[in-house]
Amino acid sequence: METIIKDTIATKLEQEIQWLEAIIDTALTLYFKNESNYTSVREIPPPDIYDLDNEYFRLVHKYEMSFEERVVLILTLLPYIKPQALDVFLIKNKNIDAEFSEFGGIKIEKLYGFIPTLETACFIVGGADDIELRLNFMKKINKDHFLYRDRILHADSYPIRLQEKLQFSDEVLFSIISDKKYMPTYSSKFPAQLITSKLNWEDLIVEPRIMNQLLEIQQWLRHSELILDEWNLNTLLKPGYRALFYGAPGTGKTLATTLLGKTTNKSVYRIDLSMIVSKYIGETEKNLGNLFDEASSKDWILFFDEADALFSKRTQTNTSNDRHANQEVAYLLQRIEDFDGLVILATNLQSNIDEAFLRRFQMAIDFPKPKYKERKQLWEQMIGKHFEIEEGAEVLDKIAKDYELSGGEMINVVRYCAVKAAENNEKRVHLSNIMTGIKREYLKSNKTFN
């Protein structure tokens, strides 16, 4: 079945290429005033696009692409899957012994073949001698056009000119060629990492107050389009949503963020602040700009963990470095405020956040260490659900009452107990191992263990 589907996609792409080849042949025939069956390339009907599970066809369907847009899309793909189809543009103008400038294209030294540009697309659709058509093409295909706005195509510079090389963004090209969803890789240019969880919403154990606040964020993510667009509240409310999660490590801030994404079918990316702050002036803004642009086009949730490193109260501008640092913070805060998706900032201390920016949060949630009720639920979920307890499951109630631990600390205890159980080759936990694990966590925090 998989082979049949892939063959169908290849067959439909071949039909797209044949359509473009017919358009190119006609464009050249008409331009050189040779005899043709057509008076315009627009008389050549595009092939039907079926609802196939491939990024190329999804894009055509999603944006209901016009003739020009579809030409640009398949022309961009051609160098990757049938570069020889563009060899016709390598002919020379015999009158001046040079390439035809109206064909556009880029010639790279030691690389055979023709790399199309927007100029090439403009020529193909009839914009060589037709000034009005040419001007309309340039007005339409710009940085605000969905091809560039939604990062389907990548531009090397702005504003976008006809000399711009036609090239897909990495994620779109990967998705078209591989039939798989593209996930950006963590790097200095992309300082963010996809975070996921095997847990589900019902596995999140927090106080009812916190759960209600999280549900409110979840409901906004589900209904924001209805509220803003259909109910026309976009004149009063900004599309973005900003939330602050604060509390001790291991209290559920990251898990809550991940599950918000999982339950609303949105990818969650954790931002590495240490990689954002570059020693090179201008690099921080560039990296952040790329990150926010991609997140906006993909409807991601952005999670700034340990945000106090960059969102703390402004430093005194005693040196040029201080002033530059404050400029970077100001730029980042502005991008966060303008972001039309969900941004979550996590910090250990709410007092570290700039008060002026704090007022711009739609939600601020305090994640305290779990109380007795939540601790008991967590112990039952982490140990009681997976292990037989030598002394009986009722010991979990006493442990929950006597020892204050965060969820993260309890996970460390479970890991220790699991190792000991595996060493004994039995899925059974002894109370002594649980207590040893708890003692280790207390010692880490310099707390007295009784």
Describe this entry's structure for a reader:
By secondary structure, the chain is an alpha/beta fold. The protein folds into three domains: 2-178, no CATH class; 192-366, P-loop containing nucleotide triphosphate hydrolases (Rossmann fold), CATH 3.40.50; 372-444, Helicase, Ruva Protein, domain 3 (Orthogonal Bundle). Helix content is 48%, strand content 8%. It contains 18 helices and ten strands. A six-stranded mixed sheet has the order 3-5-6-7-4-8, with helices on one face. Strands 1-2 form a two-stranded antiparallel ribbon. The radius of gyration is 29 Å and the shape is elongated.
Globular, elongated, flat, extended or rod-shaped: what is the shape?
Answer: elongated
The helix content, as a percent range, equals 40-55%
Question: Total strand count, please?
Answer: 10
Order of helices and strands: HHHEEHHHHEHEHEHHEHHEHEHEHHEH
List low-pLDDT spans.
none
Largest sheet, in brief, is: 6 strands, mixed
Question: Based on the structure, what is the oligomeric state of the protein chains?
Answer: single chain
Which structural category do the helix and sheet elements fall into?
alpha/beta
Give the DSSP E fraction (strand runs of 2 or more residues): 5-15%
Domain AAA+ ATPase: 239-371
Keywords: ATP-binding, Nucleotide-binding
InterPro entries: 26S_Proteasome_ATPase, AAA+_ATPase, ATPase_AAA_core, P-loop_NTPase
Protein name: AAA+ ATPase domain-containing protein
